[in-house]
Amino acid sequence: MSVSFRFLSLLLVTSALPILSQADIKLPAGVVAPITSEPPAATITPTPAPNPAPASAVPAQPAVPAAMSAEPPVEIRRAIAVEDTPPAVVPAPVVSRIVYTSCKVPAPVIAITFDDGPNPDHTPRLLDMLKARNIKATFFMVGRCVVTWPHIVKRIADEGHEVANHSWSHPLLTGLGNTSLDSQLQKTHDAILKACGKAPLHYRPPYGAIGMSQRKRINEKLGYSTILWDVDPLDWKTPRNSKKVEERILASTRSGSIILAHDIHGTTVDAMPATLDALIARGYQFATVSQLIELEKETSTTVAATAPASMPLLPEPTIPVVPMSTLPPETIAPAQPAKAVGLDN
Ligand SMILES: [Zn+2]
What is the C-alpha to C-alpha distance for residues 93 and 62, in angstroms, rounded to an integer? Predict the structure, then answer.
């Protein structure tokens, strides 16, 4: 079974779960998200990189109600022991986060993303390339393009790709007040939903620039996670070159990577057949961003379930993680070190 189908099933299962508390604890200390991979306008000034929450702001352990942290009295434990059905299961202390540059996954699964479209010249032929390889991608779309070419948005969704929000007019969000910020995202959210019947679950800030309080606000208002990237082919830079796009993607992609690309550039789309085929040949499987995030969550749940001692009993994972032995080894991933994001001219 393909990973995509399995993840889709997982999504269906997990979509019924309540929203969990959010904290950015998964980002390792010192990780700085890319700021501006996209062509910065002349007026754009450097903005603070979106940092993970400082370690000091994160409780060492998820809060556990006092009543659950102590063992029940002996008589209650005996009663539990003779029950025919197991006692109510205490949910695992799964911790979520709201900003992703990549995901921690146990298998060579990656997400490729395309920004700034849809584009009438390039998005349809990109969709043909993806369909021919049964690859699902994620499209971060600009609202004003969505309303101009809604039929392409519908095709994107109908063919199983994830639709996501990239603002209405691609401004630098850090320069906006709350009213404008809300409008940029809400209008695009509504336009995507109207065009294809599916609501976005995530957004990507133009230029990768977003304030800490803005991320939190957007998460609270729209439920969005902030999706950045860890693989940047700099495909917007001139002179544009398909071979360089391919080389940069292949040099930096790792398991759990989120690859940035732009379907408004012909050279980027021209680079895709060779790039996608090379990634497939290296053993990578493609997931949408939401599927990749769910795989990370599933993995952390599985780790928690195997923790010994005082951890509460957990149900078996509904969908087991694919055993590593059935997947190509990580060693077939490119051996070159990842390039520093944003430093390649
Ligand atoms: Zn963009």
Answer: 6
Domains of the chain are 99-345 (3.20.20.370)
Q: Residue 172 Cα, ligand 1 centroid: separation in angstroms?
A: 10
316's tokens: 């078996």
Mean pLDDT across 88-115: 83
- Mean pLDDT (the chain) is 74
pLDDT digits (tens, 9 = 90+) for 213-235: 999 999 999 999 999 999 999 99
**Ligand 1 centre distance from Cα of residue 47 (Å):** 16
Could you tell me which of 148, 150, 182, 151 has the C-alpha nearest to residue 167?
182
Active site residue 265: no
Put residue 130 in one of left, alpha, beta given phi > 0 → left and psi -120 to 50 → alpha. alpha
Task: Indicate which residue of 262, 263, 265, 270 is catalytic.
Answer: 262
C-alpha torsion 297→301→303→305, nearest 10: -170
3-class SS at 271? helix
Distance of CA 21 from the midpoint of ligand 1 (Å): 29
User: How many helices (H) and strands (E) would you count in the chain?
Assistant: 11, 8
Encode pLDDT of 124-176 as tens digits: 999 999 999 999 999 999 999 999 999 999 999 999 999 999 999 999 999 99
Token pair 């393909």 in the structure block, residue: 2
Cα–ligand 1 centroid distance for 207 (angstroms): 6
24 belongs to the catalytic site = no
pTM above 0.90, yes or no: no
